[in-house]
Design goal:
Distance between the termini: 55 Å
Order of helices and strands: HHEEHHHEEEEEHHEEHEEEHEEHHHEHEH
Helix content: 25-40%
Protein backbone atom coordinates (compact mmCIF):
# COMPACT_ATOMS: atom_id res chain seq x y z
CA UNK A 1 0.00 0.00 0.00
CA UNK A 2 1.08 3.60 -0.59
CA UNK A 3 2.53 5.30 2.44
CA UNK A 4 -0.21 7.69 3.54
CA UNK A 5 2.35 9.83 5.37
CA UNK A 6 3.71 11.06 2.04
CA UNK A 7 2.39 14.44 0.81
CA UNK A 8 -0.77 14.20 -1.32
CA UNK A 9 0.87 15.86 -4.34
CA UNK A 10 3.70 13.31 -4.23
CA UNK A 11 1.27 10.39 -4.01
CA UNK A 12 -0.78 11.67 -6.96
CA UNK A 13 2.38 11.94 -9.06
CA UNK A 14 2.98 8.20 -8.62
CA UNK A 15 1.72 5.98 -11.47
CA UNK A 16 -1.17 3.66 -10.63
CA UNK A 17 0.00 0.05 -10.33
CA UNK A 18 -2.99 -1.25 -12.32
CA UNK A 19 -2.30 1.15 -15.19
CA UNK A 20 1.34 0.06 -15.20
CA UNK A 21 0.17 -3.57 -15.43
CA UNK A 22 -1.92 -2.68 -18.49
CA UNK A 23 1.03 -0.89 -20.11
CA UNK A 24 3.30 -3.88 -19.47
CA UNK A 25 0.66 -6.15 -21.02
CA UNK A 26 0.67 -3.93 -24.12
CA UNK A 27 4.47 -4.11 -24.35
CA UNK A 28 4.31 -7.92 -24.29
CA UNK A 29 1.55 -8.03 -26.90
CA UNK A 30 -1.10 -9.29 -24.47
CA UNK A 31 -4.74 -8.50 -25.25
CA UNK A 32 -5.98 -6.02 -22.64
CA UNK A 33 -9.64 -6.90 -23.20
CA UNK A 34 -9.65 -10.73 -23.21
CA UNK A 35 -12.99 -12.52 -23.53
CA UNK A 36 -13.42 -15.43 -21.08
CA UNK A 37 -15.01 -18.52 -22.65
CA UNK A 38 -15.71 -22.03 -21.42
CA UNK A 39 -14.24 -24.80 -23.56
CA UNK A 40 -15.36 -28.42 -23.46
CA UNK A 41 -12.92 -31.02 -24.73
CA UNK A 42 -15.20 -33.67 -26.21
CA UNK A 43 -12.36 -36.23 -26.10
CA UNK A 44 -11.71 -35.92 -22.37
CA UNK A 45 -14.99 -34.36 -21.17
CA UNK A 46 -13.04 -31.61 -19.37
CA UNK A 47 -14.20 -28.01 -19.11
CA UNK A 48 -11.65 -25.17 -19.12
CA UNK A 49 -11.76 -21.40 -18.78
CA UNK A 50 -9.90 -19.86 -21.72
CA UNK A 51 -9.07 -16.20 -22.32
CA UNK A 52 -9.65 -15.44 -26.01
CA UNK A 53 -8.17 -12.22 -27.47
CA UNK A 54 -10.80 -9.63 -28.28
CA UNK A 55 -9.48 -9.41 -31.87
CA UNK A 56 -10.13 -5.68 -32.13
CA UNK A 57 -8.77 -3.97 -35.25
CA UNK A 58 -8.75 -0.52 -33.62
CA UNK A 59 -5.76 0.74 -31.67
CA UNK A 60 -8.01 2.81 -29.43
CA UNK A 61 -9.75 -0.34 -28.18
CA UNK A 62 -6.86 -2.81 -27.85
CA UNK A 63 -3.41 -1.84 -29.22
CA UNK A 64 -1.89 -5.38 -29.09
CA UNK A 65 -4.77 -6.97 -31.02
CA UNK A 66 -4.85 -4.09 -33.51
CA UNK A 67 -1.09 -4.43 -34.08
CA UNK A 68 -1.39 -8.19 -34.64
CA UNK A 69 -4.23 -7.70 -37.11
CA UNK A 70 -2.25 -5.08 -39.03
CA UNK A 71 0.83 -7.31 -39.19
CA UNK A 72 -1.37 -10.16 -40.39
CA UNK A 73 -2.81 -8.01 -43.16
CA UNK A 74 0.68 -6.85 -44.14
CA UNK A 75 1.80 -10.48 -44.44
CA UNK A 76 -1.29 -11.27 -46.52
CA UNK A 77 -0.66 -8.31 -48.83
CA UNK A 78 3.06 -9.06 -49.19
CA UNK A 79 2.55 -12.74 -50.09
CA UNK A 80 0.00 -12.08 -52.82
CA UNK A 81 1.23 -8.87 -54.44
CA UNK A 82 4.00 -10.28 -56.64
CA UNK A 83 2.97 -13.94 -56.72
CA UNK A 84 4.83 -15.85 -59.46
CA UNK A 85 2.78 -19.07 -59.45
CA UNK A 86 -0.90 -19.68 -60.08
CA UNK A 87 -2.90 -19.88 -56.81
CA UNK A 88 -5.07 -22.81 -57.81
CA UNK A 89 -7.31 -24.53 -55.29
CA UNK A 90 -8.66 -27.98 -56.08
CA UNK A 91 -11.73 -28.95 -54.01
CA UNK A 92 -11.48 -32.22 -52.09
CA UNK A 93 -13.39 -35.23 -53.33
CA UNK A 94 -16.73 -35.61 -51.47
CA UNK A 95 -16.77 -38.20 -48.69
CA UNK A 96 -19.30 -41.00 -48.38
CA UNK A 97 -21.05 -39.08 -45.60
CA UNK A 98 -21.34 -35.96 -47.79
CA UNK A 99 -22.73 -37.98 -50.71
CA UNK A 100 -25.26 -39.66 -48.43
CA UNK A 101 -26.44 -36.30 -47.04
CA UNK A 102 -27.03 -34.93 -50.55
CA UNK A 103 -28.92 -38.10 -51.53
CA UNK A 104 -31.06 -37.78 -48.41
CA UNK A 105 -31.63 -34.10 -49.22
CA UNK A 106 -32.81 -35.10 -52.72
CA UNK A 107 -35.33 -37.54 -51.23
CA UNK A 108 -36.71 -34.85 -48.88
CA UNK A 109 -37.00 -32.38 -51.78
CA UNK A 110 -39.02 -34.90 -53.82
CA UNK A 111 -41.35 -35.63 -50.91
CA UNK A 112 -41.90 -31.92 -50.26
CA UNK A 113 -42.77 -31.24 -53.91
CA UNK A 114 -45.17 -34.20 -53.89
CA UNK A 115 -46.92 -32.86 -50.78
CA UNK A 116 -47.14 -29.39 -52.37
CA UNK A 117 -48.76 -30.83 -55.51
CA UNK A 118 -51.38 -32.60 -53.35
CA UNK A 119 -52.17 -29.33 -51.54
CA UNK A 120 -50.85 -30.61 -48.20
CA UNK A 121 -49.05 -28.54 -45.54
CA UNK A 122 -45.29 -28.57 -46.24
CA UNK A 123 -44.15 -27.00 -42.95
CA UNK A 124 -42.76 -30.28 -41.56
CA UNK A 125 -40.90 -31.01 -44.78
CA UNK A 126 -39.45 -27.47 -44.82
CA UNK A 127 -38.21 -27.92 -41.24
CA UNK A 128 -36.59 -31.25 -42.12
CA UNK A 129 -34.92 -29.77 -45.21
CA UNK A 130 -33.58 -26.85 -43.17
CA UNK A 131 -32.06 -29.28 -40.67
CA UNK A 132 -30.39 -31.35 -43.39
CA UNK A 133 -29.02 -28.18 -45.06
CA UNK A 134 -27.38 -27.29 -41.74
CA UNK A 135 -25.88 -30.80 -41.51
CA UNK A 136 -24.55 -30.46 -45.06
CA UNK A 137 -22.60 -27.33 -44.10
CA UNK A 138 -21.39 -28.91 -40.85
CA UNK A 139 -20.13 -31.89 -42.85
CA UNK A 140 -17.68 -29.64 -44.68
CA UNK A 141 -19.59 -28.55 -47.80
CA UNK A 142 -19.89 -24.92 -48.90
CA UNK A 143 -22.97 -23.03 -49.98
CA UNK A 144 -26.49 -24.29 -50.54
CA UNK A 145 -27.60 -27.29 -52.59
CA UNK A 146 -30.19 -25.23 -54.50
CA UNK A 147 -28.00 -22.13 -54.97
CA UNK A 148 -29.89 -18.90 -55.72
CA UNK A 149 -33.66 -19.52 -55.72
CA UNK A 150 -35.04 -15.97 -55.60
CA UNK A 151 -35.47 -14.13 -58.89
CA UNK A 152 -32.99 -11.31 -59.41
CA UNK A 153 -34.05 -7.95 -60.80
CA UNK A 154 -32.05 -6.97 -63.86
CA UNK A 155 -31.83 -3.70 -65.72
CA UNK A 156 -30.36 -2.77 -69.06
CA UNK A 157 -26.57 -2.99 -69.08
CA UNK A 158 -26.28 -0.36 -71.81
CA UNK A 159 -23.59 2.15 -70.88
CA UNK A 160 -24.43 5.74 -70.15
CA UNK A 161 -23.91 8.20 -72.98
CA UNK A 162 -21.85 10.48 -70.72
CA UNK A 163 -19.30 7.72 -69.93
CA UNK A 164 -16.45 6.76 -72.28
CA UNK A 165 -16.40 3.27 -73.75
CA UNK A 166 -14.09 0.58 -72.43
CA UNK A 167 -11.88 -1.71 -74.50
CA UNK A 168 -12.30 -5.42 -73.93
CA UNK A 169 -9.76 -8.21 -74.22
CA UNK A 170 -10.36 -11.92 -74.46
CA UNK A 171 -10.23 -13.40 -70.97
CA UNK A 172 -7.48 -15.87 -70.09
CA UNK A 173 -7.59 -18.23 -67.12
CA UNK A 174 -4.73 -16.76 -65.14
CA UNK A 175 -4.27 -14.42 -62.19
CA UNK A 176 -0.64 -13.51 -62.93
CA UNK A 177 0.46 -10.31 -64.58
CA UNK A 178 2.85 -9.89 -67.49
CA UNK A 179 6.61 -10.29 -67.18
CA UNK A 180 9.28 -8.23 -68.94
CA UNK A 181 12.77 -9.46 -69.81
CA UNK A 182 15.64 -7.00 -69.82
CA UNK A 183 18.63 -7.17 -72.20
CA UNK A 184 20.70 -8.85 -69.50
CA UNK A 185 18.11 -11.64 -69.27
CA UNK A 186 16.68 -10.53 -65.93
CA UNK A 187 12.91 -11.01 -65.67
CA UNK A 188 10.71 -8.36 -64.05
CA UNK A 189 7.15 -8.84 -62.83
CA UNK A 190 5.80 -5.35 -62.02
CA UNK A 191 2.61 -4.64 -60.14
CA UNK A 192 0.60 -1.50 -59.38
CA UNK A 193 -0.31 0.67 -56.41
CA UNK A 194 -3.34 2.88 -57.10
CA UNK A 195 -5.07 5.54 -55.00
CA UNK A 196 -8.57 6.64 -56.05
CA UNK A 197 -10.69 9.46 -54.63
CA UNK A 198 -14.22 10.79 -55.00
CA UNK A 199 -15.00 14.00 -56.90
CA UNK A 200 -15.13 17.49 -55.46
CA UNK A 201 -18.28 18.76 -53.71
CA UNK A 202 -16.99 22.30 -53.38
CA UNK A 203 -13.74 24.14 -52.73
CA UNK A 204 -11.95 22.86 -49.62
CA UNK A 205 -9.10 24.33 -47.55
CA UNK A 206 -7.42 22.11 -44.94
CA UNK A 207 -10.33 19.70 -45.04
CA UNK A 208 -12.93 22.44 -44.47
CA UNK A 209 -15.37 23.72 -47.15
CA UNK A 210 -14.55 27.27 -48.19
CA UNK A 211 -18.31 27.93 -48.55
CA UNK A 212 -20.48 25.51 -46.54
CA UNK A 213 -23.64 26.92 -48.15
CA UNK A 214 -22.64 25.72 -51.64
CA UNK A 215 -20.87 22.52 -50.56
CA UNK A 216 -22.90 19.56 -51.90
CA UNK A 217 -23.44 17.54 -48.71
CA UNK A 218 -26.21 15.42 -50.24
CA UNK A 219 -23.94 14.22 -53.03
CA UNK A 220 -21.10 13.65 -50.55
CA UNK A 221 -23.40 11.53 -48.38
CA UNK A 222 -24.73 9.46 -51.29
CA UNK A 223 -21.25 8.92 -52.72
CA UNK A 224 -20.05 7.63 -49.34
CA UNK A 225 -23.07 5.33 -48.97
CA UNK A 226 -22.47 3.70 -52.38
CA UNK A 227 -18.67 3.87 -52.53
CA UNK A 228 -18.27 0.11 -52.02
CA UNK A 229 -20.41 -0.58 -55.13
CA UNK A 230 -18.24 1.79 -57.16
CA UNK A 231 -15.14 -0.15 -56.08
CA UNK A 232 -16.78 -3.42 -57.16
CA UNK A 233 -17.55 -1.91 -60.57
CA UNK A 234 -13.95 -0.70 -60.91
CA UNK A 235 -12.65 -4.23 -60.30
CA UNK A 236 -15.05 -5.61 -62.94
CA UNK A 237 -13.88 -3.06 -65.50
CA UNK A 238 -10.26 -3.65 -64.57
CA UNK A 239 -10.52 -7.37 -65.29
CA UNK A 240 -12.47 -6.76 -68.48
CA UNK A 241 -9.75 -4.54 -69.92
CA UNK A 242 -6.80 -6.52 -68.55
CA UNK A 243 -8.10 -9.77 -70.01
CA UNK A 244 -7.23 -11.89 -66.99
CA UNK A 245 -8.51 -12.50 -63.44
CA UNK A 246 -6.67 -9.56 -61.91
CA UNK A 247 -6.24 -9.86 -58.13
CA UNK A 248 -6.15 -7.02 -55.62
CA UNK A 249 -5.69 -6.04 -51.96
CA UNK A 250 -7.33 -2.74 -51.05
CA UNK A 251 -8.08 -0.61 -48.00
CA UNK A 252 -10.61 2.20 -47.57
CA UNK A 253 -9.63 5.27 -45.55
CA UNK A 254 -11.15 8.73 -44.94
CA UNK A 255 -9.64 11.84 -46.45
CA UNK A 256 -9.20 15.00 -44.46
CA UNK A 257 -12.46 16.32 -45.96
CA UNK A 258 -14.15 13.14 -44.51
CA UNK A 259 -14.81 11.49 -47.90
CA UNK A 260 -13.68 7.85 -48.32
CA UNK A 261 -10.87 7.00 -50.73
CA UNK A 262 -9.23 3.78 -51.86
CA UNK A 263 -5.68 2.42 -51.77
CA UNK A 264 -5.31 -0.69 -53.95
CA UNK A 265 -2.41 -3.06 -54.56
CA UNK A 266 -2.93 -4.78 -57.94
CA UNK A 267 -1.09 -7.89 -59.11
CA UNK A 268 0.20 -7.29 -62.60
CA UNK A 269 0.29 -4.10 -64.59
CA UNK A 270 -1.54 -2.14 -67.27
CA UNK A 271 -0.50 0.88 -69.36
CA UNK A 272 -1.19 4.07 -67.44
CA UNK A 273 -3.30 5.45 -70.27
CA UNK A 274 -5.60 2.41 -70.12
CA UNK A 275 -5.84 2.55 -66.34
CA UNK A 276 -6.80 6.23 -66.45
CA UNK A 277 -9.40 5.37 -69.09
CA UNK A 278 -10.86 2.68 -66.80
CA UNK A 279 -11.05 5.12 -63.89
CA UNK A 280 -12.84 7.72 -66.03
CA UNK A 281 -15.25 5.14 -67.47
CA UNK A 282 -16.20 3.55 -64.13
CA UNK A 283 -19.51 4.49 -62.54
CA UNK A 284 -22.27 2.89 -60.49
CA UNK A 285 -25.97 3.65 -60.94
CA UNK A 286 -28.24 3.33 -57.93
CA UNK A 287 -31.59 2.13 -59.28
CA UNK A 288 -33.71 2.95 -56.24
CA UNK A 289 -37.03 4.82 -56.11
CA UNK A 290 -36.82 8.65 -56.14
CA UNK A 291 -35.81 10.16 -52.80
CA UNK A 292 -35.74 13.87 -53.56
CA UNK A 293 -39.28 14.88 -52.49
CA UNK A 294 -39.85 14.74 -48.73
CA UNK A 295 -43.43 13.73 -47.96
CA UNK A 296 -43.31 13.00 -44.24
CA UNK A 297 -41.17 14.54 -41.52
CA UNK A 298 -41.32 15.82 -37.95
CA UNK A 299 -44.55 14.72 -36.27
CA UNK A 300 -46.26 14.14 -39.60
CA UNK A 301 -45.26 10.52 -40.20
CA UNK A 302 -46.88 7.39 -41.70
CA UNK A 303 -48.84 5.21 -39.28
CA UNK A 304 -48.66 1.44 -39.00
CA UNK A 305 -51.69 -0.81 -39.41
CA UNK A 306 -51.43 -4.54 -38.76
CA UNK A 307 -51.69 -6.81 -41.81
CA UNK A 308 -51.66 -3.72 -44.06
CA UNK A 309 -48.46 -1.79 -43.48
CA UNK A 310 -47.80 1.94 -43.30
CA UNK A 311 -50.56 4.41 -44.22
CA UNK A 312 -50.65 8.08 -45.11
CA UNK A 313 -51.84 9.76 -41.85
CA UNK A 314 -54.05 12.21 -43.78
CA UNK A 315 -55.70 10.08 -46.47
CA UNK A 316 -55.34 6.57 -45.05
CA UNK A 317 -53.77 5.49 -48.34
CA UNK A 318 -51.42 2.51 -48.10
CA UNK A 319 -47.89 3.51 -49.03
CA UNK A 320 -46.35 1.52 -51.90
CA UNK A 321 -44.17 -1.37 -50.79
CA UNK A 322 -40.55 -1.62 -51.81
CA UNK A 323 -41.31 -4.12 -54.59
CA UNK A 324 -44.20 -1.98 -55.88
CA UNK A 325 -41.95 1.09 -55.97
CA UNK A 326 -39.34 -0.85 -57.96
CA UNK A 327 -42.04 -2.12 -60.34
CA UNK A 328 -43.09 1.48 -61.01
CA UNK A 329 -39.46 2.39 -61.65
CA UNK A 330 -39.00 -0.53 -64.06
CA UNK A 331 -42.19 0.38 -65.95
CA UNK A 332 -41.03 3.97 -66.55
CA UNK A 333 -38.92 4.00 -69.71
CA UNK A 334 -37.74 7.55 -68.97
CA UNK A 335 -36.75 6.80 -65.37
CA UNK A 336 -33.37 8.00 -64.12
CA UNK A 337 -31.28 6.35 -61.38
CA UNK A 338 -31.50 7.83 -57.91
CA UNK A 339 -27.77 8.49 -57.94
CA UNK A 340 -24.69 7.96 -60.09
CA UNK A 341 -21.37 7.72 -58.27
CA UNK A 342 -18.01 8.17 -60.01
CA UNK A 343 -14.38 8.60 -59.07
CA UNK A 344 -12.83 12.05 -58.99
CA UNK A 345 -10.09 13.50 -61.17
CA UNK A 346 -7.34 13.08 -58.55
CA UNK A 347 -5.64 9.68 -58.50
CA UNK A 348 -2.18 8.25 -58.01
CA UNK A 349 -0.70 5.35 -60.02
CA UNK A 350 2.66 3.80 -59.08
CA UNK A 351 4.55 0.86 -60.60
CA UNK A 352 6.08 -1.44 -57.99
CA UNK A 353 8.69 -4.22 -58.24
CA UNK A 354 8.98 -6.99 -55.69
CA UNK A 355 11.78 -6.68 -53.17
CA UNK A 356 12.44 -2.98 -53.78
CA UNK A 357 12.29 -0.28 -51.08
CA UNK A 358 9.28 1.18 -52.90
CA UNK A 359 7.35 -2.07 -52.36
CA UNK A 360 7.91 -1.87 -48.60
CA UNK A 361 7.02 1.82 -48.58
CA UNK A 362 3.69 1.34 -50.37
CA UNK A 363 2.91 -1.77 -48.30
CA UNK A 364 3.27 0.27 -45.12
CA UNK A 365 1.21 3.09 -46.61
CA UNK A 366 -1.51 0.65 -47.66
CA UNK A 367 -1.94 -0.68 -44.11
CA UNK A 368 -0.96 2.46 -42.20
CA UNK A 369 -4.44 3.42 -41.05
CA UNK A 370 -5.96 -0.03 -40.53
CA UNK A 371 -5.76 0.37 -36.75
CA UNK A 372 -7.52 3.74 -36.90
CA UNK A 373 -11.25 4.38 -36.94
CA UNK A 374 -12.87 5.90 -40.03
CA UNK A 375 -13.93 8.75 -37.78
CA UNK A 376 -10.42 9.54 -36.52
CA UNK A 377 -10.43 12.80 -38.55
CA UNK A 378 -13.32 13.86 -36.33
CA UNK A 379 -10.92 13.97 -33.37
CA UNK A 380 -9.29 16.94 -35.03
CA UNK A 381 -12.57 18.84 -34.79
CA UNK A 382 -12.34 19.20 -31.01
CA UNK A 383 -10.31 22.42 -31.20
CA UNK A 384 -11.56 23.54 -34.61
CA UNK A 385 -15.16 24.81 -34.70
CA UNK A 386 -15.21 24.97 -38.52
CA UNK A 387 -14.23 21.32 -38.88
CA UNK A 388 -16.67 20.33 -36.13
CA UNK A 389 -19.49 22.07 -37.99
CA UNK A 390 -18.44 20.46 -41.28
CA UNK A 391 -18.58 17.00 -39.68
CA UNK A 392 -21.96 17.77 -38.12
CA UNK A 393 -23.43 18.84 -41.47
CA UNK A 394 -22.20 15.66 -43.16
CA UNK A 395 -23.60 13.47 -40.36
CA UNK A 396 -26.93 15.31 -40.63
CA UNK A 397 -27.05 14.71 -44.40
CA UNK A 398 -26.36 11.03 -43.81
CA UNK A 399 -29.05 10.80 -41.14
CA UNK A 400 -31.92 11.24 -43.61
CA UNK A 401 -30.47 9.43 -46.64
CA UNK A 402 -31.68 5.85 -47.28
CA UNK A 403 -28.74 3.50 -46.78
CA UNK A 404 -30.36 0.25 -48.01
CA UNK A 405 -33.73 -1.14 -49.15
CA UNK A 406 -34.58 -1.91 -45.50
CA UNK A 407 -33.76 1.59 -44.21
CA UNK A 408 -36.62 3.33 -42.30
CA UNK A 409 -35.71 6.58 -44.07
CA UNK A 410 -37.79 5.44 -47.07
CA UNK A 411 -40.89 6.35 -45.04
CA UNK A 412 -39.74 9.97 -45.30
CA UNK A 413 -40.26 9.72 -49.08
CA UNK A 414 -43.57 7.86 -48.97
CA UNK A 415 -42.27 4.32 -49.57
CA UNK A 416 -42.46 1.33 -47.25
CA UNK A 417 -38.99 -0.15 -46.63
CA UNK A 418 -38.31 -3.73 -47.64
CA UNK A 419 -39.52 -5.97 -44.80
CA UNK A 420 -41.43 -3.10 -43.15
CA UNK A 421 -42.41 -3.60 -39.51
CA UNK A 422 -44.02 -1.47 -36.80
CA UNK A 423 -41.93 1.08 -34.95
CA UNK A 424 -39.85 2.31 -37.89
CA UNK A 425 -38.99 6.01 -37.75
CA UNK A 426 -37.20 8.02 -40.47
CA UNK A 427 -33.94 9.43 -39.22
CA UNK A 428 -33.58 6.62 -36.67
CA UNK A 429 -31.99 3.92 -38.81
CA UNK A 430 -29.56 1.73 -36.87
CA UNK A 431 -27.52 0.89 -39.96
CA UNK A 432 -23.75 1.24 -39.64
CA UNK A 433 -23.60 3.82 -42.41
CA UNK A 434 -25.59 6.35 -40.36
CA UNK A 435 -23.27 6.22 -37.35
CA UNK A 436 -20.82 9.13 -37.07
CA UNK A 437 -17.95 6.68 -36.57
CA UNK A 438 -18.40 5.34 -40.13
CA UNK A 439 -19.06 8.57 -42.08
CA UNK A 440 -21.51 6.87 -44.43
CA UNK A 441 -19.24 3.98 -45.45
CA UNK A 442 -20.72 0.67 -44.29
CA UNK A 443 -18.51 -1.67 -46.31
CA UNK A 444 -15.41 -3.60 -45.27
CA UNK A 445 -12.22 -1.67 -44.54
CA UNK A 446 -10.04 -4.34 -46.18
CA UNK A 447 -10.97 -5.77 -49.59
CA UNK A 448 -9.08 -8.87 -50.74
CA UNK A 449 -9.78 -10.87 -53.90
CA UNK A 450 -10.28 -14.60 -53.45
CA UNK A 451 -7.10 -15.67 -55.26
CA UNK A 452 -4.80 -13.05 -53.82
CA UNK A 453 -2.49 -15.19 -51.67
CA UNK A 454 -4.27 -18.53 -51.99
CA UNK A 455 -4.85 -18.42 -48.22
CA UNK A 456 -7.61 -17.26 -45.95
CA UNK A 457 -6.87 -14.88 -43.09
CA UNK A 458 -7.18 -17.84 -40.71
CA UNK A 459 -4.50 -19.70 -42.68
CA UNK A 460 -2.15 -16.70 -42.49
CA UNK A 461 -2.78 -16.63 -38.75
CA UNK A 462 -1.96 -20.34 -38.56
CA UNK A 463 1.33 -19.70 -40.40
CA UNK A 464 2.37 -17.27 -37.68
CA UNK A 465 1.34 -19.75 -34.98
CA UNK A 466 3.31 -22.53 -36.67
CA UNK A 467 6.45 -20.38 -36.80
CA UNK A 468 6.23 -19.52 -33.09
CA UNK A 469 5.60 -23.13 -32.04
CA UNK A 470 8.49 -24.40 -34.16
CA UNK A 471 10.79 -21.78 -32.63
CA UNK A 472 9.69 -22.90 -29.16
CA UNK A 473 10.23 -26.54 -30.07
CA UNK A 474 6.59 -27.46 -29.56
CA UNK A 475 4.52 -29.66 -31.90
CA UNK A 476 2.00 -27.96 -34.14
CA UNK A 477 -0.69 -30.51 -34.81
CA UNK A 478 -3.89 -29.35 -36.53
CA UNK A 479 -6.83 -29.28 -34.14
CA UNK A 480 -9.99 -31.15 -34.97
CA UNK A 481 -12.57 -28.35 -35.47
CA UNK A 482 -15.26 -30.53 -33.87
CA UNK A 483 -13.20 -31.47 -30.82
CA UNK A 484 -14.05 -28.41 -28.73
CA UNK A 485 -17.37 -26.83 -27.79
CA UNK A 486 -17.24 -23.17 -26.77
CA UNK A 487 -19.74 -21.41 -24.54
CA UNK A 488 -19.87 -17.84 -23.22
CA UNK A 489 -19.22 -17.19 -19.56
CA UNK A 490 -22.07 -15.38 -17.73
CA UNK A 491 -21.24 -11.96 -16.36
CA UNK A 492 -20.17 -12.09 -12.73
CA UNK A 493 -19.10 -15.75 -12.84
CA UNK A 494 -17.13 -16.38 -9.62
CA UNK A 495 -14.75 -18.76 -11.40
CA UNK A 496 -13.40 -15.98 -13.64
CA UNK A 497 -10.40 -14.28 -12.08
CA UNK A 498 -10.24 -10.47 -12.01
CA UNK A 499 -8.94 -8.88 -15.22
CA UNK A 500 -5.69 -7.73 -13.58
CA UNK A 501 -4.89 -11.29 -12.48
CA UNK A 502 -5.56 -12.65 -15.98
CA UNK A 503 -3.34 -9.98 -17.52
CA UNK A 504 -0.49 -10.84 -15.14
CA UNK A 505 -0.83 -14.54 -16.01
CA UNK A 506 -0.61 -13.75 -19.72
CA UNK A 507 2.42 -11.47 -19.18
CA UNK A 508 4.20 -14.24 -17.26
CA UNK A 509 3.49 -16.67 -20.11
CA UNK A 510 4.87 -14.23 -22.66
CA UNK A 511 7.97 -13.73 -20.51
CA UNK A 512 8.61 -17.48 -20.64
CA UNK A 513 8.15 -17.49 -24.41
CA UNK A 514 10.57 -14.59 -24.91
CA UNK A 515 13.17 -16.15 -22.64
CA UNK A 516 12.94 -19.40 -24.60
CA UNK A 517 13.24 -17.61 -27.96
CA UNK A 518 16.26 -15.63 -26.72
CA UNK A 519 17.89 -18.87 -25.58
CA UNK A 520 17.31 -20.45 -29.00
CA UNK A 521 18.73 -17.37 -30.76
CA UNK A 522 21.84 -17.49 -28.54
CA UNK A 523 22.34 -21.18 -29.35
CA UNK A 524 22.00 -20.54 -33.07
CA UNK A 525 24.48 -17.66 -32.86
CA UNK A 526 27.02 -19.82 -31.00
CA UNK A 527 26.62 -22.61 -33.57
CA UNK A 528 27.10 -20.15 -36.44
CA UNK A 529 30.25 -18.67 -34.87
CA UNK A 530 31.59 -22.16 -34.24
CA UNK A 531 31.19 -23.14 -37.88
CA UNK A 532 32.81 -19.89 -39.00
CA UNK A 533 35.82 -20.54 -36.77
Amino acid sequence: MTDRRLPRALRQAMPLAREVAVEVAKQYGVCIRPVPLRRLDTHTGRWELIDVPCGSTLEAACPPCAKRNRQLRMAQCREGWHLDHEPTVTPDEPTEEQRWLVEFRADLQARREEAEQLGEDTADWDAAIEGVDAEINEAGMRGNVLGRTAAKRVRSTRRRQDAPDLPKRKMTSTTLGRTFTAQDGKVYRPSLFVTLTLPSYGKVRDGIPADPQTYDYQRAARDALHFSKLVDRFVQNLRRVAGYDMQYFATVEPQQRLAPHLHMAIRGTLPRAELKQIIAATYHQVWWPPADEVRFQGDHLPVWQDETGYLDPDTGEVLPTWDQALDQLDADEDAEPLHVVRFGQQHNIQSVLAGTPAAGKWLGYLTKYLTKSLADPLDATADNPARREHAARLVEALRTEPCSPTCPNWLRYGIQPKGAKPGMLPGRCRGKAHKPDHLGYAGRRVLVSRKWSNKTLAEHRQDRRTWVLEALGQPDQPTDPHRYIWKPVPAGDANVAPLAVRLLRSVAERQRWRAHLQQLEAQNLSATEGRAA
